[in-house]
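Re: weekly structure request thread

Next one in the queue (88 aa):
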Amino acid sequence: MGEDALSPFLLARKRPFPPVTFLPEWRTSTVLALARQMYDSRDFSAMPILADALMDANCTDEAILTHCRGPGPHMRGCWVTDACFGKV
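Done, posted below.
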């Protein structure tokens, strides 16, 4: 079975997460509200908006911002949303 046939969950677990430094000042009320809403609803379509909110909080980490704007897959356990919650 090719990698393209794997479920998004298996792909997320197969690929290592990049090391991330998530500064506390990036955890604004807007960032946390967006991350929580996506996590609770399992609808990650607001990831590009999360990137904008992180930029508003002075986040310049290209790996984080690129991931938020990328096609995903995005799901619970996403390393960026986990970093928002301090889980990484």
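Helices lie at 8-14, 29-41, 47-56, 62-69, 79-84. The longest helix spans residues 29-41.
Next request, please.
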